[in-house]
Amino acid sequence: MHAKWTWLISVGLLVSLLVLAGCAAPHIPSRIIYEDPVNFVRLEEDSEVLAEWPPTHHAHPFVIEPDKLRTILSGLMVQEHWIALKRWMRGESPLVPAFTDEELALLSVRIAEALAEANYNERVTFYLSEPLTFARRVITTGGLYIHGTELHMLLGNWRIIYGIPAYGMIYDRRYPMRPTAAKGFDLRFQSTEAVVPTKASILDVIFANAKDELVIDLSKLETQGPSVSSLGPCLKHETGCEGPYRFVNYKNTFSAPQRVLR
Fold first, then answer.
1. DSSP symbol at 197
2. Residue 152, SS3?
3. Contact at 8 Å (CB) between 123 and 144?
4. Burial label, 195 (beta-carbon count in 10 A; 0-12, 13-18, 19+)
5. Total structural domains in the chain?
6. Within a domain: residue 45?
């Protein structure tokens, strides 16, 4: 009888461990670019990038001046969802800057560093928080990557009050691109002509597989000079590459990638 109970307990423990392993959130390989007690910027592997399929590769490393990146980030706006009655009474909800001046100062420098160090299969993620109490904090999180001449940006959380659970996984820091609650906002960009329309099939919408990204065409943004460049092709030692491919400005706009001769 004792042996039988020992066997049953062992089986129960084994099943419990298997269930816990199955429910455990997968680990995402990452490397820290910047971290302080309440914020971080890091690089994460993008599972949708396939080494054997070059069209999925991101245009990383990607060099951009922090001031130029700050200009782009300052154009990101958030529009909260209002119910139909409220929209009928007050119109559309106002556009609010996605980041404060302090957040822009941090992100513009650190994200520029991250993009310059990123590999073709990595994306930049960030986490901003402001502690309220020991167990509650206001968080803004998200991520971005450069694909071709397009900047893909996603906000997982925006000024959300997150309560740290008494037990279990703390998801807000581990998965900055995932929302911790139902998203009640849309991400906009002031220069609407630079926004690339995104399309999703009916099935993607039904099964919530549509990408919640804002896509900005960098070639349509005004700038003052050759401020960004994609180093990916040359770092791969492609034939005939004399120098980095840059987005060179000649007419106050981002032009198509051109080869810089030395």
1. P
2. strand
3. yes
4. middle
5. 1
6. yes
- Cα separation, 155 vs 145, whole angstroms: 12
2 located within any domain: no
Q: What is the torsional sign of CA 250, 107, 44, 183?
A: negative
Give the count of beta carbons closer than 10 Å to the beta carbon of residue 258: 13
Q: Which domain holds residue 240?
A: 27-259
Q: Tell me the one-letter amino acid at 38.
A: V
Q: Is the pTM of this model over 0.85?
A: no
Name the DSSP letter for residue 55: G
pLDDT tens for each residue of 217-250? 999 986 544 455 555 544 444 443 433 333 433 2
Does residue 36 form part of some domain? yes
Q: Can you read off the two tokens belonging to residue 39?
A: 């914020």
Closest to 213 (Cα-Cα) out of 249, 183, 187: 187
79 occurs within a structural domain: yes
pLDDT digits (tens, 9 = 90+) for 140-190: 999 999 999 999 999 999 999 998 887 766 778 889 999 998 888 999 999
